[in-house]
Amino acid sequence: MKFDIWTEEEAKLKCEALWDDDLVLFPSRENQAFQEFLEDFRGRQEYIKRFGFMLLNAEFVEELSKEFKQRGIENFIETGSGYGTFTKVLNDSGFSGKGYTLELFTDASEAEKSQWGLNPNPIYTNGVNNGQVVLKDLKEIIGDPETDLIVSSWVPLYDGSEVEAYFDNNYYPEWYLVVGEGYGGCTGSDDYHDWLEKNYEEDHVFNSYKSFAMIHDQAILYRKK
Predict the structure, then answer these.
(1) Which structural domain, as residue segments, surrounds residue 104?
(2) How confident is the model over 96-134, as pLDDT tens digits?
């Protein structure tokens, strides 16, 4: 597999040309530019710097919209929403929700280090456009009985004591979309996955979701037990 297709400067220029200040959802089928981004390390780093760790393509968003609507999912909150990209995509797709993050980085080099930081690009830090809310602690998230879905992508490696703080202590919505790796992976500790398995059961795997080369994340919709 090719893994260094572009130089650092080429990757930056290609990102600027393809995405500029907004996100283009590539169709992944027979799309050479998208395939190159999947396989090129520098392209991946530029994408992460702009939009976060969760790779978005058009077929995935289409499948997600279809499955959500079939289940009556309308309102959501995203915990650890990072740059706010997925919150924006969901709102643009006709759903209604806010993204919560713990930190607001103003330096691009710092933002690049954590999907839980916000991109300094104003498009993705604008609270009106993206519904981003910066928290001091995850316990500040307020569970709303009208919330249909919680979204979490690339959950940090929490220990057991922090898992319960990930949601409001008294409310877990019916649906939970998780994007990341499973037990033993780079997202979520085993305590977190134990908690997930105890409270939710797998309902739908999004086969249209794509990953960068050497990354083994999945997008799975869970339903509360």
Answers:
(1) 72-224
(2) 988 777 655 444 444 444 444 333 333 333 333 344 555
Is residue 58 domain-resident? no
CB under 8 Å to 224, separation ≥6 — which residues?
A: 172, 173, 174, 175, 176, 199, 200
- 76 SS3 class: strand
92 assigned to some structural domain: yes
In a domain, 51, yes or no: no
Domain membership flag for residue 153: yes
First to last CA, the chain: 41
CATH number, residue 163: 3.40.50.150
* Average pLDDT estimate for 208-220: 88
Cβ atoms of residues 135 and 117 within 8 Å: no
**E-strand stretches of the chain:** 75-79, 96-101, 132-134, 149-153, 175-180, 200-205, 218-224
Which residues are CB-contacts of 90 (< 8 A; sequence separation ≥ 6)?
Answer: 76, 78, 97, 151
Q: Which residue has the tokens 């999912």?
A: 73
Number of domains the chain is built from: 1
Determine how many CB atoms are found less than 10 A away from the CB of residue 46. 24
Closest CA to 47 of 79, 83, 94: 83
State the helix-helix crossing angle for 41-51 and 8-19, rounded to 10 degrees. 50
Residue with tokens 């919680």: 150
The token duo for 56 is 């978005």
Percent of the chain with pLDDT over 90: 20
